[in-house]
UniProtKB/TrEMBL annotation:
Catalysed transformations (reactions): an acyl-CoA + acetyl-CoA = a 3-oxoacyl-CoA + CoA; dodecanoyl-CoA + acetyl-CoA = 3-oxotetradecanoyl-CoA + CoA; tetradecanoyl-CoA + acetyl-CoA = 3-oxohexadecanoyl-CoA + CoA; hexanoyl-CoA + acetyl-CoA = 3-oxooctanoyl-CoA + CoA
Residue ranges of every copy of the Thiolase N-terminal domain listed in the record: 51-321
Species the sequence originates in: Astyanax mexicanus
Pathway: Lipid metabolism; fatty acid beta-oxidation
Coiled-coil segments on the chain, per record: none
Acetylation among keywords: yes
Function: Mitochondrial trifunctional enzyme catalyzes the last three of the four reactions of the mitochondrial beta-oxidation pathway. The mitochondrial beta-oxidation pathway is the major energy-producing process in tissues and is performed through four consecutive reactions breaking down fatty acids into acetyl-CoA. Among the enzymes involved in this pathway, the trifunctional enzyme exhibits specificity for long-chain fatty acids.
EC number, UniProt record: 2.3.1.155, 2.3.1.16
Record-level GO cellular component terms: endoplasmic reticulum; mitochondrial fatty acid beta-oxidation multienzyme complex; mitochondrial inner membrane; mitochondrial outer membrane
Entry-linked Pfam families: Thiolase_C, Thiolase_N
UniProt domain Thiolase C-terminal: residue ranges: 333-451
Name under which the protein is recorded: Trifunctional enzyme subunit beta, mitochondrial
Amino acid sequence: MATMLLKSFRSNLVNFRAYQFGAERCISATASVQAQAKSKKTLAKPGVKNVVLVEGVRTPFLQSGTTYADLMPHDLARAALQGLLHRTGLPKEAVDYIVYGTVIQEVKTSNVAREAALGAGFSDKTPAHTVTMACISSNQAMTTAVGLIAAGQCDAVVAGGVEFMSDVPIRHSRKMRKTMLSLNKAKTLGARLSLLGSIRLAHLSPELPAVAEFSTAETMGHSADRLAAAFGVSRQEQDEFALRSHTLAKKAQDEGLLSDIVGFKVPGKDIVSKDNGIRPSTMEQMAKLKPAFVKPHGTVTAANSSYLTDGASAVLIMSEEKALAMGYKPKAYLSPTYATPKVLERSGLTLADIDVFEFHEAFAGQILANLKAMESDWFAQNCMGRKAKVGAPPLDKFNMWGGSLSLGHPFAATGCRLVTTVAHRLKKEGGQYGLVAACAAGGQGHAMVIEAYPQ
């Protein structure tokens, strides 16, 4: 979940990787195609196959180690798929393809899309595959769905994402794995005893998974801390933004605005119907927490970071023609293009045309540094090769129902949540265009312009 946002700081931050939403490399995106009465500007093109978002759902996002702890990833993905079918009344046979994103893979269900689909009752004749692109895995799943429909291969595709941090794979050390594999091949008792005798105490140390980039060995929290320092984002600013996220999320939850959630009956437990990580605090309480990554002087803490989360999401994407023929009222138009600010240029839009912004909040410092970068002509000219800044989104349009800091961030499931939230906010607020953006490990990101379907 990192990018080289600050090339100009290379002399001081040799191994620095930062978060970005506006870069023009290593990025895929999605844009919209039709208009609503509010604006005369339209992205529609004659003869183009329109692709629409029909519906989006998600399981409640729960802190890892809580109610979902005894499940498996495909259980959550299955619940999201079943919730989507229930909400839309969609016949299973009408789905041409299923594509799911995931990051931390359960080895027993490596193609979690297939296992979840079969568990949800889809035919074994419906193809399903799994993609991984760090925290934008479900964004990529949706982009794949759009591509399949735009190419004429499919009319209805279900895309989604799932992450299960309550039970991540833990491996034996490599030396122990090699010994165990050799034991399996040994043909004599003497050979087996010899191999057993070679085992040392150090061989028994497990390999724990780490949320770090393989190429840099740096965790996302370290990147966020360095990014915040490079852009002069203070601890207080980060805590204030995190408090804002939790406060807005609690308000949205209390007002019933998080309508994409489908209740999930956990075996042996009650029905789960809401996110459990939304916890408005106070600035005084947040200030007591110690730095989580760069110690002792870092500014990223548990309070201003997204937390480890279990959850799944699913969206139904269709060709407009097929959706209308089946009696559906689409929520929004979708089609492929490039990322912010290129997505705006490709769409013929400016920041002022966007009514709703939903950005992934990995860390408060990451978000605030990006907003400062987007407001900087110097950054645009020296780091992005652009003549002028793209501008920062106004906060009164930004993540108004909370974000990943408060709602939770099941890595691969967040993208679908962002897109569905934009569609719902556009309808409630009477807006026309929404912008989604998210960062991902390995210096990647995703941006998408969504246009409300005409009411």
